[in-house]
Design a protein that fits this description.
Mean pLDDT: 87
Distance between the termini: 75 Å
Largest sheet: 6 strands, parallel
Number of strands: 12
Oligomer: single chain
CATH architecture of the largest domain: 3-Layer(aba) Sandwich
Number of helices: 11
CATH superfamily of the largest domain: Response regulator
Structural class: alpha/beta
Helix content: 40-55%
Shape: globular
Strand order of the largest sheet: 2-1-3-4-5-11
CATH topology of the largest domain: Rossmann fold
Order of helices and strands: HEHEHEHEEHEHEHEHEHEHEEH
């Protein structure tokens, strides 16, 4: 009798232990932890993914500061080994470099993966896994409309961006023929030269896509805020930014793509899967909504009256 009692106690202990275990979730970010886009993604995800309820581990590729393809190639195996060792129930990846990492190194044929912040067509990645998630959109026409509502012309516009992989993917979404000039450059000195040159022209809208892979004359990484500070001091052409952080950094305005909102939707998908095992049947979810944003301080610097926007949207 005592033997059966001991067996029952052991089984109950195992059952209680299993019930008390939290589902493991691994999150692989393409960039560094204090990058504003990453912060917004994390905040949106955690709106639904309760860190008290699940065991969550974050991993960062830091591929915004380190843009060399060889560096990413060397980092991926070690990080993926840590994720595999963690044995998560679900893997969530943000932005294209994280998917590129899985494409080259991961062998997870039936593993559930949710993605967010993807700019390239997810179907183009050769990943043998169960995948679904959210892709973003550049809101060029809506952003130009925002300038119009502010009473500002945008007939002669230019576009400038860094040479990051993210920029290249977004450029595929944009009708480049609509611009007087398109500059894709990592050299900060070239940015300075171009922006100053445009001050002496008839350019009336400066579209700034991404500026997070810039280097100074010594080849050192240039903090994004340093670039925006320089633009504020030297540029008088109204700027358009396409991301939440662009306006937060100090560019004038834009209808922005929100990492927060995309990630919030990814969080809902994650909770549904973790709670009842239901994985999204639709692989690609577009988040079509842009958010009109204006930096009031920058508007004042440029002498722009934002009261014209009161009845817009």
């Amino acid at each position: 009798m005592l033997k059966y009692f001991i067996i029952i106690c052991v089984l109950l202990a195992i059952l209680i232990s299993c019930l008390g275990q939290k589902s493991k979730v691994a999150i692989l970010y393409s960039y560094y932890s204090d990058y504003k886009w990453t912060i917004n993604e994390n905040n949106g995800l955690m709106e639904n993914l309760d860190s008290q309820k699940y065991e969550i581990r974050n991993y960062y590729l830091d591929s915004k500061k380190q843009t060399q393809k060889q560096w990413l190639h060397e980092q991926c195996p070690a990080i993926l080994a840590k994720i595999i060792d963690f044995e998560p129930k679900l893997l969530i990846v943000f932005d294209d470099n994280a998917l590129r990492c899985l494409e080259k190194f991961a062998i997870m044929p039936d593993f559930p993966i949710l993605f967010g912040g993807i700019n390239k067509n997810p179907n183009s990645y050769q990943i043998k896994a169960k995948m679904a998630g959210v892709v973003g959109t550049i809101h060029l026409e809506e952003s130009l409309e925002l300038l119009t509502k502010l009473g500002l012309p945008n007939t002669n516009k230019v576009l400038i961006t860094d040479e990051s992989e993210t920029s290249k993917f977004f450029l595929e979404q944009i009708p480049l023929e609509a611009f007087e000039e398109v500059v894709v450059e990592n050299n900060f000195a070239i940015w300075q030269q171009k922006v100053l040159q445009w001050q002496r022209s008839d350019i009336d809208a400066l579209c700034v896509l991404l500026y997070h892979a810039l280097r100074d004359s010594q080849g050192n990484y240039l903090p994004p805020q340093q670039l925006v500070n320089w633009i504020q001091e030297n540029n008088r052409i109204p700027e358009i930014g396409f991301f939440d952080f662009s306006i937060e950094d100090g560019l004038l305005c834009g209808v922005t793509t929100s990492g927060y909102e995309q990630s919030k939707l990814v969080g809902k998908m994650a909770v549904t899967y973790l709670e009842d095992g239901t994985f999204p049947t639709k692989k690609i979810h577009h988040y079509p909504y842009g958010k009109p944003r204006i930096n009031i301080g920058r508007a004042r610097e440029l002498g722009i009256d934002v009261r014209k926007l009161q009845n817009w949207r």
